[in-house]
Amino acid sequence: MSQIIISIGREFGSGGRVIAEALAKRFDIPVYDRHLITEIAEKTGLSHDQVEKYNEVPKSRLISRRVRGFSNSIEDNIAEMQFEFIENKAASGDSFVVVGRCSETKLKKYPGLISIFVLGDMSAKIKRIKELYNMNENEAKAFIEKKDRKRKSYHNYHTGLHWGDSRLYDISINSTRLGIDGTIDLLEDYIKARINGSQK
Amino acid sequence: MTAAAIFAVIIFVVMFIMIVLDKIERQYVTLGCGLLTIIVVFGICMRSGEAIWETLAVKSFATTDFWYQVTESESKGINWATIIFIAGMMVMVEGMARAGFFRWLCLKIAYLVKCRTVPIFITFMIMSAVLSMFIDSITVIMFLSAVTIELAHLLNFNPVPMILSEIFCANLGGSATMCGDPPNIIVGTSLGFSFFDFLSNTGVAAGICLVVCVLYFYIVFKKELVSNNKGAAVDMSKLPKPKDAIKSKKDFIISSVIFGIAVILLVTHSVTHLTVATIGLFIAIITLISSGRTSLELIKKVDYKTVLFFIGLFIVVSGLEETGILVLIADFIKNISNGNAMIMVAIIIWVSAAASAFVDNIPFAATMVPVIQSLSSAAGVNISTLAWSLSLGTDIGGSATPIGASANVVGTSVSAKNGHPITWGKYCAKLAPATVIVLAISTVYVFVRYL
């Protein structure tokens, strides 16, 4: 496998981003997540905050309209720029890790794609978010639910497929079972097995 | 209310909601709802084969009037003339775009004004309005906004004020002629008006409004336009040359000649008696013949989704028309205006504008044409007065919000993709007041000239 593209879908609080960064380090390839925001900001001249504001959020249907592939929604335009960016990266033959951005569907045609969805038990996710964002239990739960609702809506709108549906991904894994480090190890083995498998 | 009327209303409302929600592509929505109208309203409820036949309007192709019209006539059901004309113009515009015509024109004008920001701002607004009189505003804005951004990056000015002004002027220019905006084509072909009828009525109003809005935008955007430039001399050697925009000289000349022929045919069609359907078909045929081997690619580029959207839409509106719903709406307008023509005109202009600011103005116009026909015969107000009011209201009202018209969506999208997102707040702060000013002028214009 000359090119590997590791696509990580994730529930909020499941540690998906940390897992993606660790895998990128272990395979010595770049990761596109927050970096994707910077890339888009640099390319378009938008501020980092502007891209961040509209990043991976669904558009409001009532105040948006699409005409011959053009959309007035800034969310849509930012999303399309990101899809185009990862598509160009994939087409250029580069190997990379990408977090979210419907990449498991958008990059499906590339044989080097390994798609992963990371989920977690709600109790474990709450514990993580409480610590990371200094929130109480209820706030953390509401925050997780809100974030996941947005991710689901964003994903389903841009792909027409169900976010988190195991049939979309090569592997779905609950990070609570093995812990974040254990999950990273397991995924590393899985990716290596895929690479070796394709070379045989 | 009969069962047929109830189902016709339900189908229409569902269609509108689904278009707004944008979950399913709009051509499938209108075609699906059109099919339901034929089966449920005309077939099951009315058991009227005649209504289906009239709505499909296939026999209109066989009439001389469809192609060559000596006397004014009105059409019912699917407005095939509108559909053929729009498809024909799409083929011509695609040929022009392929040859590099629009980019060449934008760059040529920028060079003529020596690439100075304020003159570009003013000439691009006028160009946007003039081109939109003959070509669909989507294409006009697609090219104009792209060149504006390119020039803005090279000349270091903020492109957003210019794009917003171009969008507004494209919609305004579209109101000036019969082929400028789809609602006008629907109004014109449904009620038997000519290109010149529009030009001498809505065209005059649009001309007055254009002068006012150029002044308005200059005052509103003056600061933003000159802030980065600071009067520095422009190094034109760094700019792309107009001649480089031309991809093939032969195609460029051919497409320019065809465009010229289209303009002449449209301007003179009340004299030649050629209908817009004939003109659209003729223009498409000569474009395809002159394109030779690339003609198939041009046909593939036709926006079939829009064509199918129109077909479904006309069927659904026919459901409302055949079941008498639109007469009820006309009676309602007549009653609340107490038969006063001024109130009627004001209602048509402002309600059309308010609706068009938020929903697609094409279904609205298609629905309102039979309403103003009924209103005219019931209240004794000249149909042309109501038609100009409807055209001005729907065409101009669409400028008020980013989703009101197709040009707005395309302009804001091109801007966002190039690093200049335009939020609802930013858009409405400048364009909603302009819309209100232009609507007020149009209302006074209709009052003074026709009532």
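qc> The beta strands of chain A are 5-10, 31-32, 66-67, 70-71, 96-99, 113-119, 171-174.
qc> done
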